[in-house]
Amino acid sequence: MEFIKVTKAYDKYIALIELNRPKELNALNLQLMGEVRDALKELDQDDEVRVIIITGNERAFAAGADIKQMAGKTTVDMWKTDQFSTWDQINKTRKPIIAAVSGFALGGGCELAMTCDMIVASETAQFGQPEIKIGVMPGAGGTQRLTKALGKAKAMEMVLTGKFISAEEAEKLGLVNRVVPVELYMTEALKLAKEIASMSPLAVQMAKESVKRSFEVPLEEGLHFERKNFYMLFSSEDQKEGMNAFVEKRKADFKGK
Ligand code: CAA
User: Fold this and answer.
1) Nearest CA to ligand 1 atom 36
2) Nearest to 66 by CA among 31, 33, 29, 37
């Protein structure tokens, strides 16, 4: 991996993907996103890993797709490369993904954060879809995910003006889970990851799948899907362990079985 670092340094249950093109503010070139796709695929198969954190550095989570790599391309080039298809893996990942964001989260960087399941932001984080300023528009989910997160008026303004919003505003608008001082954003993301990692990984993954389904289907169908996942968990050892632990007044030890 040239442009990302993958570690399990903190806890065997938590994997950390660090975007690592600091001089280019973690601009998301094709290779970097290919590496993110491959890492996510592998971590999703790794039985030990329960939660994944994606982060950048203090100055930038990611300043967008790599403009220099795209500048000379034609429609045919873009169609053939289909560079955003590598992003499908993020959406397909079953394990929860937390974006730990500091500094710039712009264009594809904002889209990457929004494709994750939760966002922990440092107070220096800035979110924006500035593609309009370079003659294009968001292409990796910005028009859809931002609108679902913020509603039409705010999303339209951000997409049509390229204006950034601060971490504080992003929290107020419901885009991010929480905002903490810059020196604490990784600690806070890790705390959230640890809390989720202490639950049954099967229940976590099915619950994530059900919440995500609410964005795709009408209520009736979503409720049906949720109910089936709920019933399905009753064939897991974790369900027995969780409920027995409650009855026996002890802490549950979930195995993901
Ligand atoms: N692509 C390629 N290189 C980038 C980049 C990007 N998206 N963003 C920053 N860089 C590079 C700069 O070119 C610069 O490189 P050099 O030192 O070689 O000149 C280096 O990173 C540092 O950047 P700046 O000197 O510009 O730093 P700054 O602090 O003055 O400004 C910034 C920071 C406001 C984020 C500014 O870099 C900027 O506006 N970046 C582009 C943001 C953008 O338009 N993103 C959307 C991209 S398109 C997209 O993402 C499509 C999609 O939907 C997926």
Assistant:
1) 63
2) 29
Domain at 4-197, CATH from 2.40.128.260, 3.40.920.10, 3.40.190.10, 3.90.226.10: 3.90.226.10
Per-residue pLDDT of 142-194, as tens digits, reads 999 999 999 999 999 999 999 999 999 999 999 999 999 999 999 999 999 99
Say what the pLDDT of residue 10 is: 75
Quote the tokens at residue 76.
């045919």
pLDDT, tens digit, 9 for 90 and up, residues 211-231: 999 999 999 999 999 999 999
Contact 77, 41 (CB under 8 A): no
Quote the CA–CA distance of 221 and 124 in Å, as a whole number.
Answer: 40
Catalytic residues: 65, 108, 111, 131
Dihedral sign for Cα 149, 230, 92, 96, please.
positive
pLDDT (0 to 100) of residue 9: 73
Say how far apart CA 46 and CA 225 lie, in whole Å.
Answer: 26
Using most ligand atoms within 8 A of CB, pick from 24, 68, 69 the residue to mutate for ligand 1.
24
Classify domain 201-247 at the CATH superfamily level: Lyase 2-enoyl-coa Hydratase, Chain  A, domain 2 (1.10.12.10)
pLDDT of residue 86: 92
pLDDT for residue 76 = 97
102 and 123 in contact (C-beta within 8 Å)?
Answer: no
Mutate to test the pocket of ligand 1, among 25, 124, 146 (most ligand atoms within 8 A of CB): 25
